[in-house]
Amino acid sequence: MIAVVVFAEAIGLPMPAALALVAGGAAVASHSLRGPLTVTLALAAMLFGDTLLFVLGRYLGWSLLGFLCRLSINPESCILRSAESFYKRGKITLIFAKFIPGVNTMAPPLAGSMKMRLQQFLRLDAAGALLYILAYGTLGFLFRDFLAAITRGFQAASHLFGEVLFAAAIAYIGYRVWLYHKNKVYRVVPRVQVEELARKLASEEKDKIVIMDVRSHGYYDADASRIKGSIRLEPNNLAEELKNLPKDKDIYVYCT
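^ thats the sequence. predicted structure below, dont judge the formating
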C-alpha cells in the first residue's frame, strides 16, 4: 500500500506519500513491516513513476506539462516555478524536488523535455527519492509512540474528530475557491494570431513593433532559429530586462 501511494503521488495524483512513509516508518519501528523491504519497494515505486513521466516528458514536452499543471490554481505559474528551479539550480533540482509541492511532479517531465540523459536522470532522481523516503520514514520510526498516542486519541474521540475533519474539509474547499478567484486574472492572457502579426510586420506599422523571444531556459539555444528581427528577453532576469524595453512601441512576446 505504501508503494501504491508513493507511485500515485509520483505520477501527479493528489496522494499523501509523505504521510504513507511516516506511517511506514512507525510500522517498521513496531516490527509490523521490514525496513529494507519497505524502503526498496517505496524507492522502486517512486523511480518507476518518475521515469514514466521522464519518458513522456521527452516525447510529449509542454503538452504533458500543461496537462499536469491544469489542476493547479495558476497553471502558467506552476510551469514557470518548476522551470525557474531548473534555471537557478540546474540538474541538482532533482535531489530536493520531492520536498517542494508542485515541483515534485514537474521535475521529471521537465528533465525529460530538456533532453537530459536517462542514466544521469536515474542517478540524481534515485538520490532525491531515497533522501525523501528516508527523511519521512525516519520521522515515523523515531516518533512511533507519539503517533500511536495520537491514533488512540482519535479513536477515543472519533465523533469529535469526524466533526473537526468535516470542518477542515469545508475550510479547505473555501480556501481553494478564494484562491481560484484571486488568480482568475492570470488565466486571461492576451494573445494575437500569427497571421495578424505577420500582416503588421509586412505593413508600415512594422517600425512600431518589437518582438521579444521569451522562451524558457532549457529550450532556448543562442544558435536556434527565431523570428527575424526579434530580441531575446531572459524571463528569469525580468526586472533588469524590462528597463531596456521601449515605451513607445507595441511589444509582442512568444514563448515555448
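The chain has twelve helices and three strands.
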